[in-house]
């Protein structure tokens, strides 16, 4: 929503806790012309994985968020895989009187 891009969602049939977000247009790619020589494993768009993971942790869901495909590496789309690991416990703090 904040990037102005609406992803397509694809669910995995094998597990119920995994799905994929596919971005036809990734606005972060516009800021990178070419990966530096010798740094082809560098993932500029990993920022998106951190944002998604952090947002899920804010609603008490632990998840593994990884890139499956990246347009900077020659793929047709940017695809992010999300696997839910567990529901985090809500820690409530008691007020001291």
From TrEMBL:
* UniProt record similarity statement: Belongs to the TRAPP small subunits family. BET3 subfamily.
- InterPro entries, alphabetized: Bet3, NO_sig/Golgi_transp_ligand-bd, TRAPP_component
In its UniProt entry, the species of origin is given as Platysternon megacephalum
User: Molecular function terms in GO for this entry?
Assistant: kinase activity
The organism sits in which domain of life? Eukaryota
Keyword set includes Endoplasmic reticulum: yes
What is the documented function of this protein? May play a role in vesicular transport from endoplasmic reticulum to Golgi.
One GO CC term, this protein:
endoplasmic reticulum
Name of the protein: Rho-associated protein kinase 2
For this protein's source organism, the top of the classification is: Eukaryota, Metazoa, Chordata, Craniata, Vertebrata
């Amino acid at each position: 929503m904040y990037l102005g891009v609406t992803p397509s969602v694809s669910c995995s049939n094998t597990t119920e806790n995994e799905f994929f977000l596919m971005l036809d247009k990734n606005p972060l790619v516009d800021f990178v012309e070419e990966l530096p020589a010798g740094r082809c494993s560098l993932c500029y768009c990993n920022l998106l994985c951190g944002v998604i993971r952090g947002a899920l942790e804010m609603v008490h869901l632990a998840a593994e968020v990884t890139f499956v495909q990246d347009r900077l590496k020659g793929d047709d789309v940017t695809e992010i895989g999300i696997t839910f690991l567990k529901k985090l416990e809500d820690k409530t703090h008691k007020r001291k009187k």
